[in-house]
Amino acid sequence: MSVLSLAWQTVKARTSGFIGAFVAILCGTALVAACGILMESGFRGGVPTQRYAAADVVVTGDRIVRPDGGDVLAFEHAAEQPSIPAALVAKIAAVPGARAVPEQTFPAVVVGQDGQPLASKPSFGHNWDSAVLAPFTLKEGTAPQANEVVLDSGLAAEAGAGVGAQVRIMTRSVPETYRVAGIADAAGRARQASLFFSETKAAELAGRPDSVSAIGVLGADAGRIESVLANDHVTVSSGADRSAAEFEDVSQTKSLLAILAGSFGGYAVLVAIFVVASTLALTVEQRRREFALLRAVGATPRQIRKLIGVETTVVSVIAGVLGSLLGILVGHGLRDAFARIGVVPDDFALSISPIPLVAALLIGVAAARVAAWSASRRPSSINPVEALGEAAVQKRDVGKVRLAIGWVLIAIGLGATTVPLFLGGQLGAAMSVMAALVLIIGLSLTGPRVIGAAVRVIAPVLARSAGVSGYLASANVLKNSRRLAAAVTPLMLAIGFAVVNFYSQTTLTAAVQQQTEQSITADHVITGIIGVPAEVAEAAKQVPGVTATSLVRTQVITASRTGDSVEVQSRPANGLDSTASGMVDLDVVSGSLDDLQPGTVALSDSHASWEDKKVGDDVEFWYADGQRAKLKVVATYRHDLAFGDYVLSAADARAHTNAGMDSAVLVKAADTIALDALAGRYPGLQVTERVAAQDRSQERTQFLLNLVAVGVILGYVAISVSNTLVMSTAARRREFALLRLVGTGRRQIVRMMRTEALLTVGLAAVLGSLVAAVPLGGLSIGLIGSPLPAGPIGVYLGALAGAALLGLVSIAVSTRLSLRAKPIDAIGSRE
């Protein structure tokens, strides 16, 4: 009989023994496949194009930042869509058969008498010539002239405006009145409202001389256009990729999904490998008698290792194939969850191909084979002469190599917990989570030694205080600390992972809020629905007794060289005027914000130290639209959580955003009457308290995003916990039968298992809390100056209660099921 045939017969005969490994691999593969689908969708997914539906090719500015020299670890997409030279229109038109249509896109909102936008969706203005790209066709009226506009039919219906009506439209200044020259219609459901102006007026409102937002091409394929524009640093899109050029949220989503899936997938793979390895180790450990018997009848260590490997391959391939298919459903579930919290558009479609499914299958099978190899080393090396004797009693000590690796990982994890003392922000929070995972893996490897030391202290207390059941539980945990460690580890993982993920984010949020309140010293802030026109800050400065500064929230992209590699990273940044010193306190270390003019920049003190920059030096980076910058450093500051690592002049920051407006205006003024009058001239503007100066929506979205990701992984961990505890308890049927045959009652066995369950849950709670407390303590000290993390204690108590409930129920149910068989039948059953 071949090894494969023998392995298949074993799997069929011991189906219950392989269920645990099957479930672990199935769920792990599904999770990894879902992450792969999200990552692929970041490159190939999207929504159907609308405004460019008739265009064969769309040419836009290149949003990918490509540093010079070195191996780039990961390219970064610019947050803003860069404009492109209008001269490229003629260059493209020279291609035989090609028609090049330039497009201008800029914010344009139809407002009512109360100043509120009349469109229920994002609204943008365009030049009328670009209407052919949809194509938009006139349903009524004529093309727009100098002071006229054409509205799409949906917007016209919402505004209640027909041909000849007067509408107020706000772009980057006070609203202007336009006559509705026509109503245009396009096929399909529009995601955005469109307003079309004459060519001259659109160029004026766009505010980009000699530049256009995009160029639509009809009558030519992407290959021909790419060859013509090979040296012009543009992106040529066709097919489904046109939607990323059309919709800002789609472009950002594709970039975000690729990054998110890579990060989330890394955690998923790590947790899946850990869970599969621990489950398979428990499965193999429970078959020690069988392997001992095989060794006694002449099987070689190599044959036993091969048998375990083939069995694992059979189970993992079946589970992996089903798990990969299940990953499609999990991927759609994650997409829907991300859409509900605003991370991806509601209509964003996933791209599904065999690539992530096959990759997840290979990862699952590879993880299972490595775990099987590790688990098979000990049973395959049993001495044939002592095989059956050794099979009856657990080997007390743990392998030296395993112990050494475990202690090294614990040391690395403890070292990583100190990183947040020096690095703040998302990086510090991420290091806390990673440190907790490393500590958990280290504790799982040293678990029998750690758990053994703990039970040697606890067991005598149990034996004295809990009667017969306590004595039996004490004897069990003393003699089977490895089995207890296998039950404690997944519960510890669930508690530690949940607590450190939640409180790392709440602590970071509290630190940002705390520093923001310290940094913004203005009395009031002016905010708007679509932004604040740049002229508002200048107008506020003219009001007697008022000082003001523009605030522009933006991003910059930096490149850091490490050896031959280059790491490209997007960083939050803000734009301020030189008058900001009276309205913000960034805790300046050197230089002065009074010197902040176009062409200069202020750096956070930590980032300046990392880049070895000081006042007077030049620093290079990329603006939010991907344009290179080389600015002079005029100040360094400490409040980087509130204002990011880069503070630019408001003019520079504004010039490299598509909206071309301020995010807010900070104001020092004792009387708000004049400010209210100023804001009243611009529909949608309002004067509020200073706490509204910094937008917290991105932090809230990040927080919800982490909750979704952690929730999915915790769901997998919960399945693993239940799976492991049921396997561990169900394998003790013969032990229960023997106890009953020598006179132990069912209730005594149930109480014994309840005592063991309480001990399991208690140890998991203590170790899981310690695993979370150490990295969270370092993060909290580094961010908010307190060893206690910020956030409601109810979440911690809920995590403990959930883990306890899961552990107690899993052990109780499997115990009662194991006791259903008659003792005489169970004692003779096959293990």
Name a few traits of the molecule.
831 residues, alpha+beta, 11-stranded mixed beta sheet, 8-stranded mixed beta sheet, 27 strands, 54% helix
Characterise the protein shown here.
Pfam families: FtsX (PF02687). The chain crosses the membrane at residues 18-39, 256-283, 304-328, 348-372, 403-423, 429-446, 484-503, 703-726, 757-781, 793-813. Keywords: Cell membrane, Membrane, Transmembrane, Transmembrane helix. This is ABC transporter permease. It is a multi-pass membrane protein. The radius of gyration is 32 Å and the shape is elongated. A hairpin with a 5-residue loop joins strand 23 (618-622) and strand 24. The chain contains 27 helices and 27 strands. The longest helix is centred in the middle third of the chain and has 40 residues, at 301-340. Helix 2 packs antiparallel against helix 11 and helix 17 packs antiparallel against helix 23. The strands form five sheets. Strands 3, 18, 19, 20, 21, 22, 23, 24, 25, 26 and 27 form an eleven-stranded mixed beta sheet that branches. Strands 7, 8, 9, 10, 11, 12, 13 and 14 form an eight-stranded mixed beta sheet that branches. The protein has a four-stranded antiparallel beta sheet with strand order 6-16-1-17. Helices cover 54% and strands 17% of the residues. By secondary structure, the protein is α+β, with helices and mostly antiparallel strands. The model has no long low-confidence stretch (mean pLDDT 79).
